[in-house]
Amino acid sequence: MKLLPWEYGIRNLARSPSRLALTVAGASLVVLLVLVAGGFIRGLAGSLRSAGEAGNVMLIGAGSEESVERSEIQPAVATIVLGSVAGIRQTLDVPHVSPEIHVQLGVERSPGAGALPASLRGYTPAAMLVHPRVRLVEGSLPRAGHNEAMVGVLAAARMGLAANDLRVGRTFYLDGRDCRVTGIFEAAGTVMESEIWMPLNDLLVLARRDTISTVIVALDSATFDDLDLLAKQRLDLELVAMREQDYYAGLSSFYRPIQAVAVITAGLIALCGLCGGLNALYAAFVTRVRELASLQTLGFSRRAIVLSLVQESTLATCAGGLLACMAGAWLLDGLAVRFSLGAFGLKIDSAVLALGLLSGLLLGVVGALPPAWRCLRTPIATALKTS
Amino acid sequence: MLRPKYIPLVMRQAMRRPTRTLLTVTGVALAMFLFSSVQALQEGVRVATGAVAGETTLIVYRQNRFCPAASNLPEDYRARIERIPGVVSVTPMKVVPTNCRTSLDVVTFRGMVAEEVAPRATWDLRTGSVRDWVARKDAALISGGLARRRGLRVGDQFDAGGVRTYVAGVFESDQPQEQNAVYTHLDFLQRSTGRKLLGVVTQFSVKVADPARLDEVASRIDDEFRDDRQPTQTSSERGFIARAAADIIHLIGFMRLLGWGCLAAVLALVSNAIVLNVRDRIRDHAIMQTLGFSGSLVARVVIAEGILLGLLGGALGGGTALAIVRLGSLGLTNEGLYIPLAATPTMLLIGLIIAAGAGVLASLVPAWQAARREIPTCFRAV
Predict the structure, then answer these.
(1) Pair B160, B282 in one domain
(2) Rounded to whole angstroms, how far apart are CA atoms A345 and A46?
């Protein structure tokens, strides 16, 4: 098959700079919206999926398998586990058993300023063993009994505050009590980054609770079945054993309807863009019916002409897609989104960028084929007579 | 204005290129569908949280708490609230959502004292009976929306969030907070969840005699418990929902941007279509002017075509959104509070006006160009 020269398509693109600019801008907008939807889904799923450690088991209250915030178990569960299950991971004789409380409380920037919803976790030093991805990046760990806390890098975003409002040395108020920020931590993009961590006993006092939410255990030679058996034998404790990864996978699937809404929205916007693109290309190609017929008389096959037209539109939409991907990687990646008991960063990773580029490519190909086919369907003699 | 006799001309102009018209109308319909959906979410928030005159219900919640799991008030607060002047009745309630997070399918258990459930005027019990509900301790009255979504009927066993209940009745209600609700016996729910303690509730619903004294009574209740182990925060029912559903309201604020984006898309699509049509019809417009059409009339025909495209797309997209929202009983739940999508015919009408307005705006420049073009120039341009 004799193909049209590559330059022919490129020169055609420059015939109407305003139309080219519109096509590139339209494709950029559509691809950008696809990137937002993709980044939202990847960010949300990633913050939950990667939050659980392989080999960690959570002991939570029966009936609270969907939401650890609802769980209330006895603080003694941690010592019961230590005394009942052998083979728990240890570091320098310190067992990896972390009793924790997860609670949603209202936090005030200043007394009487109005409480903002915040996710708090009460922890003991063992938490650093079972959550190895938590890393203090600024300041120091809070001391027990001193009304101190460390905050995740996205905690301010979760509360709708500026990052500056929760920097090291700042004070916030919990139930009227002042609490000083001593450190900032990262947790590899997991949901923990939107939390405020305080020493367990301090938070128990502030939350006025005498129960904890969960005990997280890191396994060594012990198996999940050992902890499951303990939960089933000690009916008085009303416990359920869950792999930490299963718990967060459950949360991830809980958000599936919201993720589906994001996908559908992005799809509808892309379709909207496709309709606009098809319309513009129909008009653009119809004015060239005579030119396309002339090319056929010169010996170029219809397939070669379609390829050239697809090349034109694909070049324009891919340029738009590339621009959108650059803007997305620069402006959207890591952008904090406050959402439902937490916050996460939009994740514009290689998979999302590939999806964006593919969308641009598809817009170009799918947008060009129907109008190209329509123009080439006209018999050559009729097309040559077209004004 | 355009005289009615020109309407067939406008229609014929639009139908001369059916593929392009279809593409434009489809694009506008998609954009208006999204715009109307965002409007329905905003309307839902307004209905659920907006202040209304004559409101007489207060919600007493644990101070500085948002999640029902964290609001634990002693049931004996009831007697102290009842003694406050202006209070007509106090209803304790234990609220247990299957998940405090935001999603589309959350079940909210509401535990109430049996005698206080029966006289609820906002219900229309469709199947089952309240007598059966009173007779069984694990019985539940569930909302029609939830029953349809989960395929539940009277006599079924229903398990959610670790609470297993027997469906004794299915009710319908127009109250947003009852759309996803499962009403159980208070003591049953207290024994089934959390620390399984009797005597602890999530909130009190307080009826006040005089709407004008709502704020005064709320302050008195909070003063009463200020120094207690569990201080309270009392607000109007709608104010309480607005505070507790802050995450959804934040999300909807973000969605508003999407709504504006959709309007921009409508503008771009209609504008694109009209610009292309006007360029294709330079000769037609010259002939029309030769036949005696004034420049202004040609411009009005072009604008009318823009309005037609906007209206067709608006009706299709807005109508589909209205139908889906109405038939689908959709809504978001956060912290156990339900914010339904609310779509009304008025909203469809507003959508149509906006779509028509976008049509006018999009066709102004091409119409102006078509009107100003000289006849010889038009013929030379072809």
Answers:
(1) no
(2) 10
Helix (H, G, I), strand (E, B) or coil at A188: coil
Q: Please report how many Cα atoms fall inside a 13 Å half-sphere around the Cα of residue A368, on the Cβ side.
A: 23
Q: How far is residue A169 from each of residues A182, A197, B123, B274, measured CA to CA in Å?
A: 6, 15, 53, 60
Tell me the residues of chain B between 247 and 276 that have a Cβ less than 8 Å away from chain A: 247, 250-251, 258, 261-262, 265, 268-269, 272-273, 276
Based on the number of CB atoms within 10 Å of its own CB, is B170 exposed (0-12), middle (13-18) or buried (19 or more)? buried
What is the pTM (predicted TM-score) of this model? 0.76
Task: Round to whole Å and give the CA distance between A298 and B89.
Answer: 91
Domain for residue B236, yes or no? no
- Predicted confidence (pLDDT) per residue in B167-185, tens digit: 999 988 877 777 778 899 9
**Does B124 share its domain with B270?**
no
For residue B24, what are its two tokens? 């434009």
Domain ranges, residue B256: 4-49+247-381
> Is B92 part of the contact surface with chain A (CB cutoff 8 Å)?
no
**Vertex B375, ends B373 and B381: CA angle to 5°?**
75
Instruction: List B301's β-bridge partners, or say none.
Output: none
Q: Per the domain annotation, does B239 fall within a domain? A: no
What CA–CA distance (Å, rounded) separates A367 from A270? Answer: 11
Calpha distance A116→A105 (Å, rounded): 8
Same structural domain, B292 and B343: yes
Q: Is B103 exposed, middle or buried (0-12, 13-18, 19+ CB in 10 A)?
A: middle
A374 neighbourhood in chain B, CB within 8 Å: 19
Mutation for testing the A interface, residue in B30, B278, B382 having most A CBs under 10 Å: B30
Of the three residues B188, B204, B230, the one that is the final residue of a domain is B230
**Contact state of B247 with A339 under an 8 Å Cβ cutoff:** yes
What tokens appear for B317 in the block?
A: 């997209």
The total domain count for chain B is 2
Annotate B189-242 with DSSP letters as a single string. Answer: HHHHSTT--TTEESEEEEEES-GGGHHHHHHHHHHHTTTSSS-EEEEEHHHHHH
A contact test, residue of B16, B21, B22, B23 with most A CBs within 10 A: B23
Contact B70, A104 (CB under 8 A): yes
- Tell me: the pLDDT tens digits for A110-163? 887 788 888 999 999 999 999 999 999 999 999 999 999 999 999 998 888 888
**B100, A69: Cβ pair inside 8 Å?**
yes
Q: For residues A349-374, give the mean pLDDT.
A: 88
Q: Are A304 and A4 in contact (CB under 8 A)?
A: yes
Note the ipTM here.
Answer: 0.72
